[in-house]
Amino acid sequence: MLENTISNTPTYSTLKVEIKNAIAHIQLNRPDSLNSMITAFWKELPECVRHIDAEASARVIIISSLGKHFSAGMDLSVFANMGSSFEGEPARRAERSRRMVLALQDSFNALEEIRIPVLAAVQGGAIGGAVDMICACDSRYCTEDAFFTIKETQLGMTADVGTLQRLPHLLAHGLVRELTYTGRKMKSDEALRHGFVNQVFSDQEQMLEGVFAIAQQIAMNSPMAVAGSKEMLNYTRDHSVQDSLNYMATWQSGMLQLPDVHEAMAAGQEKRLPQFEELHPKTD
User: Fold this and answer.
1) Angle, nearest 10°, between helix axes 223-237 and 241-255?
2) How far apart, in whole angstroms, are the C-alpha atoms of residue 134 and residue 166?
3) Does domain 15-219 have CATH number 3.30.499.10?
4) pLDDT score recorded for residue 156
5) How far is it, in rounded angstroms, from Cα 1 to Cα 277?
6) How far apart are the C-alpha atoms of 178 and 131, rounded to whole Å?
7) What are phi and psi for residue 149, nearest 5 degrees?
8) pLDDT tens column, 111-153
9) Is 7 helix (H, G, I), strand (E, B) or coil?
10) Domain boundaries of the chain, sorted by first residue
């Protein structure tokens, strides 16, 4: 397992990134602005997670934030920039608008597409675009004061960056529709009761301690096995059971090799931590 902080991680204007002991910690880093998602954020987040994945520099990613609230969602400046797209010939204007929405969606699609599990650690408010983001994460954890709201409806628009597509796979449809149509807050106890979050912690310090402990457990396992599990879970969400079983069989025919299995068994017998080879970096 990687033991030292990776030094070649790029720097970002909206994110603070540290990678240590095979765990990448990405923090939203605009606390004075409630970590609202400015234009730079939508470019930097996918660039950051894809860089970590491409370099195979971590086995788990944790996304948290600095400040009182996790994120107030899309910044007003982004909405203002969108206003300029409502000019010109209607068909070309619509085509440009569509590409803009697809680009925003891609920022959070990246969280699903990378090989590495992504854990969200939420304190305070997760509003609008922040809900879109954490719905694309593998697991969610929060503090007692956390709340989640699909704010777009109250702003006169339909949420368009992933919440309405992913949340119905995480919560009962009736509840998703209620949260969407009303824009009301879902507090931490309700989120836990309905399985949206895995665990609720008393405060952010306790939450990060707990989430890092979970990340460490993930990082001790074969990164090949974990990556395969993420691939299968994402695939089965969008396909039939039979299609998913067929894909699983095809995956195993190539990806199931014995070195990691032998190492896991030997480590168990010898009562030591297993040592697995990292995933190969991606090449262009």
Assistant:
1) 160
2) 10
3) no
4) 94
5) 8
6) 15
7) -145, 135
8) 999 999 999 999 999 999 999 999 999 999 999 999 999 999 9
9) coil
10) 15-219, 223-270
